[in-house]
Design a protein that fits this description.
ATP binds at residues 12-19. By secondary structure, the chain is α/β, with parallel strands linked by helices. The protein has helices at residues 18-27, 41-49, 72-81, 95-105, 119-136, 148-159, 211-218, 221-243, 261-275, and strands at 6-12, 31-34, 56-60, 86-92, 139-142, 169-176, 187-190, 248-255, 279-284.
């Protein structure tokens, strides 16, 4: 059986940013469920524990659950009895900020009907209801004055998976400029300055997937110097892309036809990224074209 999944209970004040938070957890590779009835927690956790594919789980549970939510404390105690490790993230904001957010979005507070429609009374009632749960929280984040980027960084710092590398998937793509630049590329690298194997008769019909072409492309001092600088740049950039919230990055390397130089260097880029434990997809877009 696989090691037990990591569980995070996301809760807190309505309007404090739980929807944004669960999207962030989803970007980080968590299996996410919004508004799960508390009565189903134990059964759901058991399913996750015996599922080999689920490693990290985030559950949003709040007063939208109505009567089900009232049993949440008891259900969490059941998880303790089962020996399940979980953490609670509690999001809150000041009353004036919550009132402003509700007025801006024109959404109805879940407790408004119980408070004669008054937003302030509903917010204060909710604070009282959540007081015990707030006291159990492993992390409390006040979202009154923080941006989505700041919230992402807070969640990353406190609930990130074991390796930051798991937050991003990188596509290493080769292409030919004669067929156009890939529209979905984030970084485009032009390697047409390197000696071209196309003009070597014995290599012309081969591709950068074959050893003879790779040896030819990489044997030149300029190629070696370029790769050193290029890979160093990529190693520097990726953590910064992750910090800004990017979950997929496409690095496109182009030569004239997309068969020799670009394929060779894309293969070497993929090997380098895999050595750093990044998730890599290799796509030789134009390798089959004539």
């Amino acid at each position: 059986m696989n090691s037990r999944p990591k569980f995070v209970i996301v809760t807190g004040m309505s309007g404090a940013g739980k929807t944004q938070a669960i999207r962030i957890f989803e970007d980080f590779g968590y299996f996410c469920i919004d508004n799960l009835p508390s009565a189903l927690i134990s059964k759901f956790v058991e399913l996750c524990i015996y599922n080999q594919q689920i490693n990290n789980v985030a559950l949003v549970m709040d007063i939208r659950g109505g009567e089900f939510f009232e049993d949440l404390i008891e259900e969490l105690a059941n998880l303790d009895d089962l020996g399940v490790n979980y953490e609670i993230l509690f999001l809150e904001a000041t009353t004036d900020v919550l009132v402003r957010r509700y007025k801006e979005t024109r959404r109805r507070h879940p407790l408004a009907a119980q408070c004669g429609g008054r937003i302030i009374d509903a917010i204060e009632k909710e604070r009282t209801m959540l007081e015990e749960l707030r006291g159990m929280a492993n992390k409390i984040i006040d979202t009154s004055d923080i941006s989505t980027k700041d919230l992402r960084e807070e969640i990353l710092a406190n609930f990130g998976v074991n390796a930051i590398n798991e937050f991003i998937t990188i596509t290493a793509m080769s292409f030919g400029f004669k067929y156009g630049i890939p529209l979905d590329a984030d970084l485009v690298i032009d390697v047409r300055f390197l000696p071209n194997p196309y003009y070597v008769p014995s290599l012309k019909k081969l591709t950068g997937l074959q050893t003879e072409v790779q040896e030819y492309v990489l044997k030149w001092p300029i190629a070696e110097k370029f790769m050193d600088k290029f890979l160093d740049l990529i190693k520097f950039l990726i953590p910064h892309y992750i910090k800004e919230g990017k979950t997929h990055l496409t690095i496109a390397i182009g030569c004239t036809g997309g068969k020799h130089r670009s394929v060779t260097l894309t293969e070497k880029l993929a090997e380098f990224l895999e050595s750093l434990d990044y998730k890599v997809i290799v796509d030789h877009r134009d390798i089959e074209k004539k």
